Amino acid sequence: MRWWRTGAVAAGTIGAAGAVTVAAGAAAYWAWRRRPGSFSLRDRAVLITGGTRGLGFAMAREFLAHGARLALCSRSRQECDSAQDQLAPFGEVFTYACDLRRRGELAAMADAVRHRYGFLDVLVNNAGVMHVGPWEQMTEDDYAEALDVHLWAPLRLSRYFLPAMQARGQGRIVNISSIGGIVPVPHMLPYTLSKFALTGMTEGLRAEAYRHGVRVTLVCPWLTRTGSQENAQFKGRHRQEFAWFALSGSSPVIAQNPEHAARQIVAACRRGRAVLVLGLPGKAAALLHGIAPGLVADLMAQANRWLPKPAAQGERARAGAESYNRITERLVRPRVRRDKARYNQPAA
Question: Which of 129, 262, 305, 323 is 20 to 30 A away from residue 273, measured at CA?
Answer without folding.
Answer: 129
